[in-house]
Amino acid sequence: MPKRVGMEVSLAIGEAAMLADVDVIAAYPITPQTHIVEHLAELVANGELVASYIPVESEHSAMSACLGSAAVGARTFTATAGQGLELMHEVLFVAASMQLPVVMTVANRALSGPLSVWGDHSDVMAARDVGWIQIFTENGQEVFDNVLCAFRIAEDKKVLLPVMVHLDGFHLSHMIETILIEDKEKVDKFLPENDYPLPLDPKKPVSMGTFAPPIIYSEAKKAQEVNLQKSKDVVIECWKEFNTIFGRQYKPVETYRSEDAKTLLLTMGSFSETAMATIDKMRDDGQSVGLVRLRLWRPFPTKELREAVQNAETLVVFDRAFSLGGQSGPVCAEVRSALYNETRKPKVTNVIGGLGGRDVTVAGFEEIIKKGVAMARKGSKQEFEIYGVRE
Amino acid sequence: MAFKNEIEVTWKDLEIGSIVIEPGSAAQYQTGGWRSQRPVRDNTKCNKCGLCFLYCPEGCITQQEDGLFEANYYYCKGCGICAEECPKDVITMVEEEE
Fold first, then answer.
1. Is the pTM of this model over 0.90?
2. CA of B19, closest CA in chain A: separation in Å?
3. Quick one: CATH architecture of B30-95?
4. Do B17 and A226 touch (CB under 8 A)?
5. What are the b/e assignments for A118-139, b being 16+ CB within 10 Å?
6. Which domain holds residue A132?
7. CATH number at residue A358
8. Around Cβ A59, how many Cβ atoms within 10 Å?
9. Candidate from B14, B16, B23 with C-beta closest to A160
10. Tell me, what's the pLDDT at B2?
11. Best of A206, A218, A222 to disrupt the B interface by mutation (most B CBs within 10 Å)?
12. Does A391 fall in a domain?
């Protein structure tokens, strides 16, 4: 029987990594992620988890150590946030191109400057193109579940890619929630042992991370892109299998009361749950609104997104980050691009908000939807509007 | 050379993560393609001292059976160090287009 516990979400992530029999954790503490690796350090120190815990001197070193550990075939976990994700930035690309199945939770945090420890998605968006599989979660159970899924997806021989599991800093990382901690036997059934096919081994030497002159670089990048795009099938298959064993289903694009809705709101991460309450309220008021939540950010679920929004008149995309000097928030830019050549598509408007830890309430999302619909109707001087900023 | 010619390698031929599973594959990289000048020898002046062989940063100069030295143009980058160091002015750097 699974244990139903009241637990801080960060600690539940540590429990998930322990249930996954992680071999190596290399991490550097940074707010709002610290409790995750602190808990894992505790579990290793008190002997509950038999693993190597490498306390490194920076995030750049953390990710580099993770690469080495994954390269010998060890199950490898780390966590970071905000500036930490930025400091490991160049190594993130290397992990993906070397196809090393590292799993990392990112407690999403606003990037400096000005200095902020609070949450938004600017760290994710700066790491958008690093070649990792990226999954967004909305509550503690989803993070717990998707950490288990992340190991299975990352280490699948058809994939072999690093996976980020995103959770909103503070809004999710520091919440105490009711979480089902699943049975070890069931987790073992779901998650086979890591069997990296070409590990560093003195008996069978290989060269990893070699340089690629112009004659081969394009071929290497094409192979990487095809592999990442194809991984979507494995992600979907993994979520189905997870549902069979544990009874909770995840999808690349999830919807809420969206079937016949004229207006759709698109969100990512924990704010989606607030937005669901808004949809309930507005539906009760007789308005034709629904919600679309993007769970799989990379590879981008283009087909699923098109299907989810094609019948709506207006799609209001809510971004929790700027693309400074760009045309819209980064999520909206991708959504517009996915729909541009479609014949059946909604008008897409963009509202940016929830920046640097600022909350968006149930009433707030109603305002955002109304703002988005008004922009679609009347047009706007800007390609996007910012919610809640004092003029 | 035991390797597939690099021009024939497609993206489907690459190992996972572009891992190289055979040792010594760097030998197929034609660094001679970088060359704009070619070392040409007048072996009548050569006293077989071997300084060109010692100074060559590419390690592409080898001694022949008759004791004279030859550069392997597959690897020679045309840096000109052999020509600079030769005490007998055996080696002249010639533009590749000539």
1. yes
2. 5
3. 2-Layer Sandwich (3.30)
4. no
5. bbbbbbbbbbbebbbbbbbbbb
6. 3-246
7. 3.40.50.920
8. 25
9. B16
10. 41
11. A206
12. no
